[in-house]
Write a structure and sequence with these properties.
The protein is of the alpha/beta class. It contains 14 helices and 16 strands.
Length: about 425
């Protein structure tokens, strides 16, 4: 069995839902994971904010506008009178429930319940369309088998037991349809997977049922070797190792979240990135690939802040780095890059929320300087240190660009360089010219 996940743009209109169902019908025995229609989650978050701000009239108007969108989508999707009546009845029920939140107490618990309606709406409409087309499909409620722990991590043993139990109760079905993103927490409340969203759901289900392949369908034909917004002539990368894909996702390739394919990696299940607008394109397959001795792709991460701590006390002093890292841990601020010398250490962060407090504590250990509006450019491929010359090619490509930091050797798949924001586009173009 394959798992097919479709993102918001793939179910963003009635016509796209129809196209998506055509792809599913041709695939045979599959589990299908759907996101909310594009724009819906943002609308539900905005509605939640209006409720929290006690702007009842604004919340009510947004609910009315969103309901009109779904009524129109249902009418465009379904021809069967009875199924259309079912769809409109379900839409009406959902939006009456949403209106019930407007003047009631509203906490993070209620907000998560509100946001979950997006996936419920898309899967219910698609399930009815599948029924109209005569497909042998069943709609599964993701909250019956998707659960996170008290720490917010997927409870993978619970998921494995329960998703297989739910499928076993429907043994004659060809298509199992369910929601991405939403789940229950350890208290049994509606919650969500946060990182990776529906992609994470697909990866977790794929690992749980030992799927043959996990397909992530979006609106781009795979992961490209550079950012097509800034570089002409980019092309999809045919094959990536899981680690290469994670590096690219972390450093700016928005098609995939860096953590969402980890369950597939550990279960050794290939993940294929495909384009619903161009289904014949081969896309990108991500798996535990053998070394290729090639550079695969370039990505960039914006809004980076670099911090340098310089101290003569660091010279030969053990414990210095531990003290520095403990400050970032205290303020729950992850570090992206790090370089060290005999008398100093430089790190980068992408979140300045606690920067003032971090700097105040770092200044107890030495002279601190900060560079804002920086960009990390990441070059990914088979970069084992025995593969001679790759790091030289990267540095030579950027010989005209001022480079603040270079990180190499911490991973077998990544060389990272810190540059100014104004040098980003030129750097991406130069790397494409020299490496590809």
């Amino acid at each position: 069995m394959k798992v097919m996940k479709f993102g918001g743009t793939s179910v963003g209109s009635a016509q796209r839902m129809k196209n998506m169902v055509g792809l599913v019908a041709a695939a045979g025995n599959v589990t299908v994971v759907l996101s909310a229609m594009s724009g819906t989650t943002n609308s539900l978050i905005s509605i939640s904010q209006s409720i929290k701000d006690r702007e009842a009239a604004n919340a009510a108007k947004q609910i009315d506008d969103l309901e009109k969108k779904y009524i129109q989508t249902a009418k465009e999707l379904l021809n069967d009178k009875n199924l259309l009546e079912d769809a409109l009845g379900y839409v009406s029920k959902v939006f009456e429930e949403l209106r019930g939140y407007v003047n009631a107490p509203f906490s993070i618990k209620e907000e998560k319940e509100v946001v979950a309606y997006g996936e419920k709406l898309s899967t219910n409409l698609v399930a009815l369309y599948m029924k109209e087309k005569g497909l042998n499909a069943v709609l599964l409620d993701a909250t019956e088998f998707m659960r996170i722990t008290a720490e917010g991590e997927p409870d993978q043993e619970y998921i494995r037991e329960n998703v297989n139990a739910v499928i076993a109760r429907n043994p004659e079905v060809d298509i199992y349809l369910t929601q991405g993103f939403i789940c229950r927490n350890h208290l049994g409340e509606i919650d969500n997977l946060q990182r990776g969203g529906s992609d994470y759901t697909a990866s977790l289900i794929g690992a749980a049922i030992a799927a043959d392949e996990i397909q992530i369908w979006t609106d781009i034909d795979g992961m490209h070797n550079n950012d097509p917004r800034f570089v002409e002539g980019t092309s999809p990368v045919g094959e990536l190792h899981f680690e290469e894909a994670a590096e690219l996702a972390y450093f700016g390739a928005k098609i995939l979240h860096p953590t969402c394919v980890q369950p597939a990696k550990y279960a050794n299940i290939p993940v294929r990135l495909l384009n619903t607008m161009q289904p014949e394109a081969p896309g990108t397959v991500i798996f535990n690939a053998k070394p290729t001795h090639t550079i695969k792709a370039v990505a960039a991460k914006d809004n980076i802040t670099a911090i340098k701590i310089k101290s003569s006390h660091m010279l030969l002093a053990y414990g210095f780095l531990r003290k520095v890292f403990e400050i970032f841990e205290k303020f729950q601020t992850p570090i992206d890059m790090i370089t060290t010398s005999e008398v100093g250490v430089s790190v980068t962060i992408d979140n300045e929320r606690n920067l003032k407090s971090i700097l105040a504590e770092l200044e107890e250990y030495g002279e601190v300087s900060v560079d804002r509006d920086m960009v990390i450019v990441c070059v990914v491929g088979d970069l084992e240190w025995q593969n001679r010359g790759f790091e030289a090619e990267v540095v030579n490509a950027l010989k005209e660009i001022p480079v603040r930091m270079i990180s190499y050797g911490g991973s077998n798949y990544n060389i990272s360089l810190l540059i100014r924001k104004e040098d980003k586009i030129r750097s991406l173009q130069l790397l494409s010219q020299h490496l590809f």
